[in-house]
Amino acid sequence: MDKSTILKLLTKDNLVQPKVLLIEDCQFDTVFLKRTLEQYYPLSLIDYANTKFTALQKLKKNMYDIVLLDLHLPDSVGSCDIKDFKHLCPNTPLIVVTGFFNNDKLMKAHQYGADGMISKSDLMNDSFEHAVSEAIDNIEAIAS
Question: What's the gap between Cα 111 and its chain centre?
């Protein structure tokens, strides 16, 4: 899927329903992220996973327009798990959503295949749409 198609799917005013896999184990953060997604993309279809195992099973069975990943899952070992997710969905933008953002973490996430990273605190402004656009650019650059 190319950038224009994904951006079209994820445009706030579009009637298309982007399918999002939200991988998060904290119930509070799940509710917060769901509300944020619905604010930006009111018609989005959100699927949930609270463990790496469950998320991988869902990725094997379903196609998603975007994957949002918290790295601190109960059965996760951190950034290196990104490779497992990207192996199953190499052309789907994968954005790490973290409460602990720093440049080292960003570089490590990119090394393992993440297409973007955003701090949970930045979700309250326009950074989310920027992170989606940047993730799509990263996928296009890899595909070229």
Answer: 16
